Structure formats: structure tokens, C-alpha cells
């Protein structure tokens, strides 16, 4: 009990000079106890409309992402770049993302499937589950009723056809066409499109006309016919590879009838093509332009174009220019381009550094899985990631990634439901995921059950 005199003295002093502040001794405590006083905070999410990806690691909140919902508000462009070394969960993320997006009625997806096992692409299981037959481009069976895509398909404009022919030739030659070769190609294409009226023009027609140019094409430029033939010889030899060479059968005939461009999922199976050969960027250029003119339409559908091994596109100046135009054009018509690559150095240090920088700039969403420290620093420098994010990238475990959505940077653990697991984990994917932290397995399963419950709900604004 306080001394009455002290109480009286304190009251009198307060009356004369105001209330006297109480002086307290500092409190010494541990960080474990202090965290109850200084509560942690987490960055705000991206809203509640879209597909559930998983949970934000530090707060435990559900992480929801949809480029179409965010476009124009938090995203200047709907395009997405996925980075990371093999074995960290890129494949699982792509597949579950597509499966969850397809639950919306106005979604449609095209996948360029460049990887596979047992003679089929790794998207084969998902295609089968949805009752879809992949479009398998295979030069070994193309001559025996295989799938064909015609670069001279009448659905592609004549300007688009000529641009595509030039790209095919430039990719194969490794350099741009000179003026004379370009002239020989232009006059051969003009003659073929003008005089072939009873059927689809095909590449064989172009090769034949390059080898045997018309006299009027030489006369119009006041040059000798032998000069025009010589100018087109190298071009003819390159295109001949698509007619009689190792790529024969896939592009040297009319487009195969019956390709369903209205299916919710369209899978181009490129797994039978050597990923390290010049054939892959040529294939991607042809498929990309063909889709631009036949698939992307002003019908208010939201479309996703997912390309695995996308460095085949970004690392070739000529192919990158085609896709750069596609991205700009597709943004007005509801196209989200998803590029999946292993290392950023594969593209930024390549021959198409300028084009790669332009495409990366249009990718407002970046997802980065574990990388080695040097690669993480390079990625952080190019993408402008905060220092803390760069430092944790080498420490990330499989299934966890840094997400940068137009500057909103969070660490997210991807969650997979039991229904998705057999479709997502092919043999290769299972190998990649085998090092998942067992201590998180129970928690992951419980949260996956929650996602399944949400997926089976009736809400149209949030779809898992």
C-alpha cells in the first residue's frame, strides 16, 4: 500500500505542473514471446475471383490467380512466364492450372507439348480424361495418314503465308533472306496463289515454281530468268526439307480435315520431334501462325496458349518476331500466353536478346521455382525482383515458388487435389515431385481436400 503522503504529494504536483509520465524499465524477452505482441503481416492477395493455385506460405491464405480477372486492374498484360529447374513442380502447376481454368465455360486452351514418355506427350493423360485426341505431329507417320498443317492454308492471309514462308526459311538458314532471294520467293508465292484455284496450294507448288520461275517474273524486273532461278535455289532447297526431307509429311499437303478448333483443350503433341534440332522452332512458327489465323477469334472466349520448351520460340529472332506480334494481337482478343522455360539465361543471352526482352516485358506475371544462386541473381536482375525474393529462390523446395504479379511478390505453395494427382503426376512428374517435404504432406492433403470441396461448389466467381 502506497504512503498517504506520497499520494498527496503526487496529486498536488500533478495539479501544479500537469500529469507526470510514469517511467517503466525496459522489458527483456525472447523473439518467441515477442511475436505475440508484434504480429506478422502478409501482403494482400489478388482477390477472390479466378482459380485457386495453393496457399501463400507466410500467411497461410489461399492464393487465387486469374489473368483475365486481373487484366486492366492489376495486370497490364495477361501473359505469364514460368521459370525453374527440372524437378521443382513446373509441370504440375501447368496442368492443374489448365484443368482448373477449363471449369469456366468461356475458357479454351492450346498446349504445345514438347515433352513425353512412352511414345506420347505428357499431356496425353489429361487429353484422354477430357475425351480429346492430341494433334500428333510426327514425320515418321505423316505420310501414312498423319496430321498435316498447311502453311498455305487459305484461312491464312496471303501476307501471313508469305511472312510464314520467310520465317521457315530464315530459321533453317540461320540468317535473314537477302533481297534477291526474298524477291524470288515473293514472285513464286504470288504465282502459286493466283493460279491454284481448284485446290489448296501446297509447299510443293512453291518449290516447283522456285526451280522453274515464270518468264514474266524476270521481265517485270528486267533481269534474266536464270538469275531469278539462281536467287531462289537456296530457298527451294530449304523448303524441300519440308517436302522430301526429315520434316516431310507434316506440312506438304492440305490441312487435315477434322481438327476440332472448338474443343476446350487442343494439344499439339511435338514429343516425337528432336527438341534440339532446327525442326522444333520451325514447327512452333508454323503452329503459331496457323493458330493466329484459325483459332483466335473475336467471340469473347478467353484463350490460353501454353508453350513448353518456349526457349525454341524466344531464342530465335525470326520466330520471336512472329510470336511478339501474336501476343500484341491476341491481347485485344482475350489471349493469355504462357511460356515455360528452365533458365532465363537460355533466352536473354541468346541470339534473340532484343526480341526476348520485348516478350519478357509483356509477361506481367512471373513464377520462379528453385534455381541455383547464380541463376537466381541473374533472374532477379533481369526481372527486377526484390532482394529478399532473390535470396530465397535457391532455398525453395519442390512445389513452392516466388510469384511476381506486376510487382505483387509472394511465396506460394502449389496444392494438388487427389482427383488431379493421377493426371498431373506422370512418371516423369512423379520423379520430379519425389523429394517433397514429408512433414508437409498431411497439411497439403488437408488443404487439397478443401480445394476439392470448393471445386465441387456452385460459385462462378471463384473456381479451383
From TrEMBL:
<protein>
    <submittedName>
        <fullName>ATP-binding protein</fullName>
    </submittedName>
</protein>
<dbReference type="Pfam" id="PF12846">
    <property type="entry name" value="AAA_10"/>
</dbReference>
<dbReference type="InterPro" id="IPR027417">
    <property type="entry name" value="P-loop_NTPase"/>
</dbReference>
<dbReference type="InterPro" id="IPR051162">
    <property type="entry name" value="T4SS_component"/>
</dbReference>
<keyword id="KW-0067">ATP-binding</keyword>
<keyword id="KW-0547">Nucleotide-binding</keyword>
<dbReference type="GO" id="GO:0005524">
    <property type="term" value="F:ATP binding"/>
</dbReference>
